[in-house]
């Protein structure tokens, strides 16, 4: 990774503040309101400019909003894709038999990943059969980590850890192309959140945790530290993995590099008319029109891959970008806010296209992809449930197509209806 200075990110990302709103989960807004309402005018508050009332920083931590990792240098655990609050919320919903969480949990319990055994390898040929082996093991490690947390059944914990430990000997990726970067992104973005949940399990030996962290540095860092020049979904998938691994490895340099990459790719992938010209980026061949697959209309929410295959790869891109923002959120860094208009426009346009089957005049081929992935809930939970933004098309897509029909785990797009559903 290139050298970075933590402080420079206050200039790179001006909307990040030392105590960004780092709460999470569908009930966090009410919980914060009630907590702050209980502080009388005569007592210290979360806005008095002082470190008091058991705060861990000035006006953050303790009874206040989490302190930003950029200010404290201290990572919050669990804090990759799933926060403590979110894990506890879903666990309570399952115990109460509430939907959709109970049905999603039962579905996962009866799935093959719930019974999976490890197939660890020393090398991954990203263009060979063992690419799928690594995918399936990563998926199973995350599925069983979730099942352990929600149920308390240590059988799942032991199985998840067995998979993670089996992959701690991985030496690297051998295809020799950007497929290695994509593969590392896909599975890193699943292995790391699994490991982040399992670090709370007392039965996972400290030396085994360290071996997995060393494996990420040895095998994954070389594939993630340079952006792919392929279509933008690949870089965004790399960034998804970077952010999650950074939390598990407690690597502030990797975390900061992921933020910088996220900000750059966001503006080169998700279009807003107010931007003017699309920023140049590696791989575009100095021909934006061609790189964007020749859109017939440039409208807010268009993506670099909208017209590539009419919504298939663009779902991987938006899912990965949102995952990275969610990891940052859990670490007290609000990437969402500065790009709210951009991401909500993308969500609503893509949802409209997938709902209607019509690309809304944006592409020469006006028929939308029939591909559906379980990757809309994290974004909806944030922008609607936390921020109160109406996303009518996104909600309709989730209700009528994603929850009834989408496969629950495809590469790094996995189990969002279970982990982040908010209605």
Description:
- With 423 residues, this protein is mainly α.
- Helices cover 53% and strands 2% of the residues.
- It has a two-stranded parallel sheet. Strands 3-4 form a two-stranded antiparallel ribbon.
- Strand 3 and strand 4 (413-414) form a beta hairpin.
- The relative contact order is 0.12.
In short:
The protein is mainly α and about 425 residues long.
Instruction: Give the strand order of the largest sheet, numbering strands 1, 2, ... along the chain.
Output: 1-2
How many helices? The count is: 18
Q: Decide which structural class fits the backbone.
A: mainly alpha
Quantity of strands, as a count: 4
* Helix fraction bin: 40-55%
Radius of gyration: 21 Å
Mean pLDDT: 90
Strand content: under 5%
Element order, helices and strands? HHHHHEHHEHHHHHHHHHHEEH
Question: Which shape, going by the Cα principal axes?
Answer: globular
Spans of at least 5 consecutive residues whose pLDDT stays below 50 are 1-42
Quaternary arrangement of the chains shown? single chain
Q: What is the makeup of the main sheet?
A: 2 strands, parallel
Q: Separation of termini?
A: 40 Å
Protein traits:
disordered N terminus, 53% helix, two-stranded antiparallel sheet, 423 residues, two-stranded parallel ribbon, 18 helices, mainly alpha
Secondary structure elements and pairings:
Elements: H1 9-12, H2 28-37, H3 69-72, H4 84-95, H5 101-109, E1 123-124, H6 130-151, H7 154-166, E2 172-173, H8 178-198, H9 206-224, H10 232-249, H11 252-269, H12 288-291, H13 306-309, H14 312-330, H15 340-356, H16 377-386, H17 392-405, E3 409-410, E4 413-414, H18 416-420
Parallel strand pairs: 1-2
Antiparallel strand pairs: 3-4
Helix pairs in contact: 4-5, 4-6, 6-7, 6-8, 7-8, 8-9, 8-10, 9-10, 10-11, 10-14, 11-14, 15-17
């Amino acid at each position: 990774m290139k050298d970075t200075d933590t402080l420079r990110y206050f200039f790179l990302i001006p909307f990040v503040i030392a105590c960004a709103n780092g709460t999470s989960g569908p009930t966090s807004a009410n919980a914060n309101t009630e907590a702050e309402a209980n502080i009388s005018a005569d007592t210290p508050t979360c806005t008095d400019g002082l470190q008091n009332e058991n705060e861990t920083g000035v006006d953050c931590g303790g009874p206040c909003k989490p302190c930003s990792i950029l200010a404290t240098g201290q990572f919050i655990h669990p804090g990759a894709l799933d926060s403590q609050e979110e894990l506890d919320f879903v666990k309570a919903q399952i115990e109460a038999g509430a939907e959709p969480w109970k049905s999603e949990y039962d579905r996962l319990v009866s799935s093959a990943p719930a019974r999976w055994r490890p197939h660890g390898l020393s090398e991954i040929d990203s263009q060979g059969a063992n690419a799928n082996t690594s995918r399936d093991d990563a998926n199973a490690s995350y599925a069983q980590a979730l099942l352990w947390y929600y149920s308390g059944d240590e059988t799942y914990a032991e199985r998840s850890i067995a998979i993670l430990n089996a992959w701690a000997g991985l030496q690297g990726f051998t295809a020799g192309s950007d497929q290695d970067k994509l593969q590392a992104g896909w599975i890193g973005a699943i292995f790391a959140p699994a490991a982040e949940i399992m670090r709370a399990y007392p039965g996972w030996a400290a030396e085994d945790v360290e071996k997995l962290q060393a494996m990420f540095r040895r095998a994954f860092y070389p594939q993630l530290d340079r952006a792919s020049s392929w279509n933008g979904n690949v870089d965004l998938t790399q960034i998804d993995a970077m952010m999650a691994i950074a939390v598990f490895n407690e690597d502030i340099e990797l975390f900061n590099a992921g933020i910088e990459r996220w900000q750059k790719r966001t503006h080169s992938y998700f279009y807003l008319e107010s931007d003017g010209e699309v920023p140049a980026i590696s791989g575009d061949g100095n021909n934006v029109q061609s790189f964007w697959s020749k859109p017939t209309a440039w409208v807010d929410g268009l993506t670099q891959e909208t017209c590539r295959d009419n919504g298939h790869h663009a779902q991987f891109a938006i899912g990965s970008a949102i995952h990275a923002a969610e990891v940052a959120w859990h670490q007290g860094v609000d990437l969402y806010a500065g790009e709210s208009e951009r991401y909500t426009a993308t969500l609503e346009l893509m949802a409209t296209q997938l709902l209607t089957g019509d690309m809304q005049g944006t592409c020469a081929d006006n028929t939308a992809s029939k591909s559906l992935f379980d990757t809309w809930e994290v974004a909806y939970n944030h922008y609607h449930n936390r921020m109160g933004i109406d996303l009518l098309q996104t909600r309709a897509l989730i209700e009528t197509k994603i929850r009834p029909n989408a496969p629950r785990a495809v590469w790094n797009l996995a189990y969002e209806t279970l982990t982040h559903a908010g209605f």
